[in-house]
Write a structure and sequence with these properties.
Blueprint: E1 2-6, H1 10-21, E2 25-29, H2 33-40, H3 51-60, E3 64-67, H4 70-74, E4 79-82, H5 98-110, E5 115-119, H6 127-137, E6 144-148, H7 158-163, E7 168-171, H8 175-184, E8 195-198, H9 200-231, H10 235-243, H11 264-277, H12 283-306, H13 310-313, E9 317-321, H14 336-346, E10 350-354, H15 359-362, E11 370-371, H16 375-379, E12 384-387, H17 399-405, E13 410-413, H18 420-425, E14 429-431
Parallel strand pairs: 1-2, 1-4, 2-3, 4-5, 5-6, 7-8, 9-10, 9-12, 10-11, 12-13, 13-14
Helix pairs in contact: 1-3, 5-6, 9-11, 9-12, 12-14
Length: 436
């Protein structure tokens, strides 16, 4: 089957490469000539473990190609996926759907064969209705159906998530579209991946509801961590204790500096705006957004306190280890490190940093931070070392070397990577999240 993937960003590129790896003939389409040229040359626009190798092998096999020409890319495609960005719209927080609708308009002008048009982008409820209206208005002489197929890919584990999904959600009321989409995902049947067919509107809402619920879990355990610090409990024990309950589960119960990334911040905000439009306010999600925003800045204050307080911190130096919102990605969108670095520099603290993949994207977001070429270079002369992102490279630092390189042995572990007793036994003043 030929598949067209309109948009060669994170979702489009990963999905396109995985579909090709299953044996489909995939064309990834993007308006950016420089991106397409880079992809043809084997240069990835994002960092995702295993992606470069997956793309390269399928290009060599002739199953994956790239073009800027939409008409060429969609010609003969049985399924055309729209996988363009839907960032938060400036001013009101609604999802910006201008890219989605522009693609639909262009498909309406250039489609010459029967096809199912699939919204892979994360879109609010009712977007598929508008895409369908746009395509109907084009009076195409071919058969067209519109379906929703949200993605559930975790950055850093996207290829595995695509190939071994918990579920595949497809929203359509059209029997023919259902048949086409079943064939698209047929290679996954050997993995017994459950296909969940729903209405298109239910499918659109499932994506937002899932991300909002995960954001609630993260924010809940972060608030429990704050309470643990006050009462002398250990948040890791609390998380294990509640996570063993099958109704709750252990995932996303890891206390830290707050969520960030490309999905949770914009999707929770978009869900709030949709709920407001339909006069069905989501107060829990509203509280989650506010608490998470405040938490990131609070982590900066936590570091300042570890430096001796506001007055003592001025003129000191803090080293941030990890800048991306999570490990195994170069994504800096809404990363807690941005707010932490800003809080520190506002307090007169000099900041150095190291991240295995994110420094190029981080630099314009935090120009006041000195980027270093290794963790130990960042730590040199620091009055506090702060673990912001739990990259594997930071899980087994040579603490004797760290202590010797620092001006003062202060370690602030915002991801609870280290054992408090062991670190303190090595002479560090140690601060972590939600542990006595």
């Amino acid at each position: 089957m030929k598949i067209a993937m309109v948009g060669s960003g994170y979702v489009g590129l990963v999905s396109g490469a995985c579909f090709a790896d299953f044996g489909h003939d995939v064309v990834c389409i993007d308006k950016d000539p420089a991106k397409i040229d880079s992809l043809r040359g084997g240069i990835m626009p994002i960092y995702e473990p295993g992606l470069a190798e997956l793309v390269s092998s399928n290009v060599r096999a002739g199953r994956l190609s790239f073009t800027t020409d939409l008409a060429e890319g969609i010609a003969g495609a049985a399924a055309i996926f729209i996988a363009v960005g839907t960032p938060s719209r400036r001013g009101d927080g609604h999802a910006d759907l201008s890219f989605v609708y522009a693609v639909a308009e262009e498909i309406g002008q250039k489609l010459a064969n029967d096809a199912v048009v699939v919204t892979k982008s994360t879109v609010p409820v009712g977007t598929g209705d508008e895409v369908e209206r746009i395509l109907k208005a084009a009076n195409l002489p071919v058969r067209v159906a519109v379906a929703s197929n949200p993605e559930f890919l975790r950055e850093g584990a996207a290829i595995g998530d695509f190939k071994r999904p918990d579920r595949i959600v497809i929203g359509t009321e059209d029997d023919w579209a259902r048949q086409v989409m079943t064939e698209v995902y047929r290679p996954l049947f050997l993995n017994k991946a459950p296909l969940l067919f729903t209405s298109r509107r239910s499918s659109e809402l499932i994506k937002y509801a899932a991300n909002a619920f995960l954001a609630v879990k993260i924010t809940f355990i972060n608030e429990m961590a704050d309470l643990c610090e006050k009462v002398g409990a250990d948040v890791q024990d609390v998380a294990r204790g509640i996570g063993m309950d099958g109704r709750i589960g252990p995932k996303f119960l890891h206390a830290g500096p707050g969520y960030g990334g490309s999905c949770f911040p914009k999707d929770t905000l978009a869900l709030l705006k949709t709920a407001e439009d339909y006069e069905a306010p989501t107060r829990i999600v509203e509280a989650v957004v506010k608490v998470n925003d405040a938490r990131k800045r609070a982590m900066g204050r936590k570091v300042i306190e570890a430096l001796g307080g506001l007055d003592a911190a001025r003129g000191k130096k803090a080293a941030l280890l990890g800048l991306t919102f999570k490990p195994n990605t170069d994504d800096m969108r809404d990363s807690p490190s941005i707010a932490i670095a800003q809080a520190l520099t506002d307090a007169g603290v000099a900041v150095t940093a190291y991240d295995p993949e994110g420094m190029e994207l981080a630099h314009p977001l935090m120009p006041e931070v000195t980027m270093c070429d290794s963790a130990y270079a960042a730590i040199a002369g620091a009055d506090a070392t702060v673990i912001v992102t739990e990259w594997d490279a930071f899980r087994a630092l040579d603490l004797a070397r760290v202590k010797a390189a620092m001006n003062a042995p202060v370690l602030v572990d915002l991801r609870n990577v280290y054992d408090p007793a062991e670190v303190r036994a090595k002479g560090f003043a140690y601060t972590s999240i939600g542990r006595p």
